[in-house]
């Protein structure tokens, strides 16, 4: 009955106050779930005993846990009681509903800020597994909900959550031929989008620096592809690669000192490493095929890249000095756009299935345990979550370009879209 | 193979293509593997011209009032067609586009101070980064053909936009066919 195959649809602007939103009508849709997911209920947090918070923190937490694919949340309509503290919980009520874990909490207004406390309760023993209180400004309630989501996730699964992180993506808007590209940074759940760059020329390929403070990306503002680095906080930006030919596909080395980029010379496209201090490049691949989309392994010693040297595109690994090239993918005739999990054990990619649809697939770095994660269609640009438990990607739904997330556990998927814009090329922050 | 003999070889191949084109019957030319008729192509040219009028400030400012502008906008002028189309994942110039490129090459040869940019574009299928490389291959193929027909190498700049700046916004065969293109931009 509380199968999470039920669809949840939130129209953001319809919600309460939502005063700080830079952009309108973000539509979030969550589908799927898993049989093995942990049953949990998140009770709405009461404000000063009776009112409600400007941000429904319990709903934010509920959505986060659902989206991970590792939790099965209980719909509010089935709640028998709405306690705010352990002392008020009738544990037998929740046991009867098949709930293993319960989140309760409350908030008090304190001047311009809020004091928020919550408890994670084990329904079986009636004990408290976690409990904290915070004091935050009103505009940080949503962020706090992500922090609490991470704490619940880590407490119950023994692995860090990735809810309090950000995503970057590119939108393109076409108004009767007048086009506008924007580079957007948003919370990992798609909320609070903020524009960091607007251009009348295409933008592509955002990539986060390891400290999450900078974005490298490709801009066509010079009427050709050039690589820029921009500080997300200050907006300060700098052109770092403007060689003759293509300059694209930036990816940060783990030590932040270098960018792998794609350059072309006389029609030959290869992977290079750009030293951000000296601005010199060193060639890593050298083939007449298209070699591009390099990403670094977490140890910084080797890179993965896509090459069509064997006919169709496949993913290869090469040492940063250009030696020891090895093919990693062998399923089907199209595997491209690699992204590496933060522990370096898994790679996700775009895979063309036998029915011709492009889907997100994952395998271990040594080629084992290949599996397709999405039904497929026009999925592209996968990017691992910082905890390696989910993948963000671009796809199409109902004829529109949208972003999707998929869990590596269960089959929970979410899509995010905004009206009238094409959303593309997402990147998940560290 | 050295440069000269490569060009000689290409010239022979192209002449064969042109001869083949002359021998083609009307029925065959109406439709090819791309599913676009000559009528549709003409409509695409008209659409593109509307685009250029709508956002062509930069392209036209330098040449306003000139012979060039008249030639670019006169539908009877061979220079009014400035887009060539490609098959999926291909950067081969198709025979029916040869006459367009010949006309531009002849004009460039007559006007050695004139510069153009060849923009290579792809459809949305495949990865954006791969498509950026494919777009460059297409732009370079157009440039090579123009040079082969007499334009100067230094007159032509190439740039790839990959799939980032589509001519048609749909996600269907017709839109994809319109987006796999090389555009000759006079500045």
What does this structure look like?
The complex is a heterodimer of chains A (430) and B (187). Chain A is 8% helix and 47% strand. By secondary structure, chain A is mainly β. In chain A, helix 1 packs across helix 3. The longest helix of chain A is centred in the middle third of the chain and has 17 residues, at 141-157. Chain A is globular and about 70 Å long. Residues 1-25 of chain A have low confidence and may be disordered. Chain B has a single domain, classed as 2-Layer Sandwich (60s Ribosomal Protein L30, Chain: A), CATH 3.30.1330. Chain B is built from 8 helices and 4 strands. Chain B has helices at residues 3-23, 26-30, 38-55, 57-61, 67-73, 98-110, 128-148, 173-179; strands at 83-85, 116-121, 156-162, 181-186. Chain B has a 4-stranded mixed β-sheet. The longest helix of chain B has 21 residues, at 3-23. Chain B is globular, with a radius of gyration of 16 Å. At the A-B interface, strand 33 of A face helix 3, helix 7 and strand 3 of B.
The number of E-state strands of chain A comes to 33
User: What is the fold named in CATH at topology level of chain B?
Assistant: 60s Ribosomal Protein L30, Chain: A
Dominant shape of chain B = globular
In the residues of chain A, how many domains can be counted? Answer: 2
What is the strand content of chain B? 5-15%
Question: What is the overall number of helices of chain A?
Answer: 3
Report on the biggest sheet of chain B.
Answer: 4 strands, mixed
Largest interface: A-B, 38 and 25 residues
CATH class term of the largest domain in chain A: Mainly Beta
Low-pLDDT residue intervals, each spanning 5 or more residues of chain A: 1-25
């Amino acid at each position: 009955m509380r199968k999470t195959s039920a669809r949840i649809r939130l129209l953001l602007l319809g919600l309460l106050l939502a005063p700080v939103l830079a952009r309108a009508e973000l539509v979030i849709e969550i589908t799927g779930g898993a049989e093995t997911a942990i049953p949990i209920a998140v009770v709405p947090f009461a404000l000063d005993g009776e009112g409600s918070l400007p941000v429904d923190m319990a709903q934010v937490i509920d959505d986060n846990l659902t989206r991970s694919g590792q939790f099965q949340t209980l719909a509010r309509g089935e709640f028998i009681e709405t306690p705010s503290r352990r002392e008020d919980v009738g544990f037998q009520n929740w046991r009867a509903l098949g709930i293993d874990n319960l989140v309760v909490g409350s908030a008090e207004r304190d001047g311009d800020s809020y004091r928020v406390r919550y408890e994670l309760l084990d329904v079986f023993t009636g004990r408290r597994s976690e409990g904290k209180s915070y004091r935050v400004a009103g505009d940080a309630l949503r962020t706090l909900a992500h922090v609490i989501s991470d704490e619940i996730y880590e407490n119950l699964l023994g692995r860090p959550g990735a809810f309090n992180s950000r995503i970057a993506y590119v939108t393109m808007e076409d108004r009767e031929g007048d086009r506008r590209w924007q580079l957007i940074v948003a919370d990992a759940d798609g909320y609070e989008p903020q524009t960091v760059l607007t251009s009348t020329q295409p933008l592509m390929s955002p990539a986060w620096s390891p400290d999450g403070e900078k974005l490298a990306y490709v801009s066509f503002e010079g009427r050709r592809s050039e690589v820029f680095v921009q500080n997300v906080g200050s907006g300060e930006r700098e052109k770092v690669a403007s060689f003759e030919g293509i300059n694209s596909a930036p990816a940060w080395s783990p030590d932040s000192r270098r960018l792998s980029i794609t350059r072309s010379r006389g029609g030959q496209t290869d992977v290079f490493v750009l030293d951000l201090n000296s601005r010199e490049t060193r060639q890593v691949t050298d083939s007449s095929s298209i070699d591009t989309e390099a990403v670094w392994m977490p140890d910084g010693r080797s890179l993965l890249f896509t090459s069509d040297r064997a006919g169709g595109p496949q993913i290869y690994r090469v040492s940063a000095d250009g030696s020891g090239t090895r093919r990693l993918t062998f399923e089907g005739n199209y595997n491209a756009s690699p992204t590496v999990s933060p522990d370096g054990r898994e790679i996700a990619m775009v895979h063309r299935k036998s029915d011709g649809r492009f889907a997100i697939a994952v395998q271990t770095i040594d080629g084992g345990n290949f599996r397709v994660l999405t039904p497929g269609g026009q999925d592209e640009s996968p990017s691992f979550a910082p905890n390696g438990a989910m993948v963000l990607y671009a796809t199409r739904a109902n004829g529109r370009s949208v972003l999707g997330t998929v869990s590596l556990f269960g089959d929970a998927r979410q899509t995010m879209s905004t009206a009238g814009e094409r959303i593309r090329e997402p990147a998940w922050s560290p | 193979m050295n440069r000269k003999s490569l060009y000689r070889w290409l010239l022979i191949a192209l002449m064969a293509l042109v001869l083949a084109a002359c021998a083609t019957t009307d029925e065959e030319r109406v439709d090819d593997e791309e599913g676009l008729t000559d009528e549709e192509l003409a409509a695409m040219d008209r659409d593109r011209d509307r685009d250029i009028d709508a956002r062509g400030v930069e392209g036209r400012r330098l040449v306003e009032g000139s012979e060039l502008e008249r030639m670019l906008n006169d539908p009877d002028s061979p220079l009014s067609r400035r887009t060539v189309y490609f098959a999926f994942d291909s950067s081969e110039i198709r025979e029916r586009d040869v006459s367009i490129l010949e006309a531009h090459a002849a004009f460039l040869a007559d006007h050695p101070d004139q510069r153009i940019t060849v923009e290579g574009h792809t459809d949305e299928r495949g990865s954006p980064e791969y498509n950026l490389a494919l777009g460059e291959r297409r732009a370079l193929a157009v440039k090579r053909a123009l040079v082969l027909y007499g334009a100067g190498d230094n007159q032509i700049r190439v740039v790839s936009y990959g799939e980032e700046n589509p001519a048609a916004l749909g996600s269907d065969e017709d839109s994809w066919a319109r987006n796999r293109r090389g555009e000759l931009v006079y500045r």
